[in-house]
Amino acid sequence: AQKVTQAQTEISVVEKEDVTLDCVYETRDTTYYLFWYKQPPSGELVFLIRRNSFDEQNEISGRYSWNFQKSTSSFNFTITASQVVDSAVYFCALRSYNTDKLIFGTGTRLQVFP
Amino acid sequence: DVKVTQSSRYLVKRTGEKVFLECVQDMDHENMFWYRQDPGLGLRLIYFSYDVKMKEKGDIPEGYSVSREKKERFSLILESASTNQTSMYLCASSPGLAGDPYEQYFGPGTRLTVT
User: Fold this and answer.
1) What is the pLDDT of residue B99?
2) What's the CA gap between A61 and A51, in Å, rounded?
3) 8 A C-beta contact, residue A108 and residue A10
4) Going by C-beta distance under 8 Å and a sequence separation of 6 or more, which residues neighbour residue B44?
5) What is the least distance, in Å, from the CA of B69 to any CA of chain A?
6) Cβ atoms of residues A110 and A83 within 8 Å
7) Residues of B engaging A, defined by a Cβ cutoff of 8 Å
8) Phi and psi of A72, rounded to 5°?
9) Taking phi first (over 0 means left), then psi (-120 to 50 degrees means alpha), and beta for anything else, what does residue B22 get?
10) β-strand pairing of B64-70 with B110-114
11) What would the pLDDT profile of A31-41 be if each residue is shown by its tens digit?
């Protein structure tokens, strides 16, 4: 069975702090894709990143970085120097190679206070 | 840019009413999806469609049906709305071919309240 676990329900930080959102997944597939989405208060899910199972290289995009480790089945997301605009619900998701379905975690609500 | 639109942002309906939620995408995507989002449960797939007139049940199809008469439009139907269907409904679309590493594109959501 496939599963995505986001154990952190809610995180509160003060602006400029670094914050890491955890994502642990379960799958028996050897080829799969991992995603992070952001859902701001407006409601629309915004795609942030996709990672292939055969590419464990970490990625950095501005203040955002992602750490993919197959050995621990984790795909963690770090925001450096957080800003109020980062306040949102963040979802991690998993998709197998041979399906169109996404399996979502339950999300982590991040609140960044000024 | 891919654009996915949903007919309403907020909707209030009475128990027993038939409810239609409409979703339109403008990028000629083969796949379209309907999810519901509830606190603590994340997004759960209701139905998806991989082609016109084709549909497959997701994880929670009970109480829902769907229609896809045109490629760009995917409708979610609540035949007889109940209070436990009060939720946020999100539509998404994506290109076809399961083997490709594509993402899903989401609409703004419809917050449905059934009273």
Assistant:
1) 55
2) 13
3) yes
4) A104, B35, B36, B37, B38, B58, B59, B60
5) 20
6) no
7) 9, 31, 33, 40-45, 48, 50, 58, 88, 90, 92, 94, 96, 98-99, 101, 103-109, 111
8) -115, 5
9) beta
10) unpaired
11) 999 999 999 99
Q: Indicate if the pLDDT at residue B18 is higher than 90.
A: yes
Taking an 8 Å cut-off on Cβ atoms, the answer to whether A91 and B43 are in contact is yes
Predicted pLDDT at A4: 96
Contact of A13 with chain B, judged by CB distance below 8 Å, is answered with: no
CB B12 within 8 A of CB B64: no
For residue A46, which residues of chain B lie inside 8 Å, CB to CB?
Answer: 106
Q: pLDDT tens-digit profile of A20-72?
A: 999 999 999 999 999 999 999 988 899 999 998 988 888 888 999 999 999 99
Instruction: Copy the structure tokens of residue A108.
Output: 């982590």
Distance from CA of B101 to the nearest CA of A (A): 7
Which residues, at least 6 apart from A108, have a Cβ–Cβ distance to it below 8 Å? A6, A8, A9, A10, A11, A21, A22, A89, A90
Contacts of A23 in chain B (CB under 8 A): none
pLDDT(B105) > 80: yes
Entry field: residues in chain B = 115
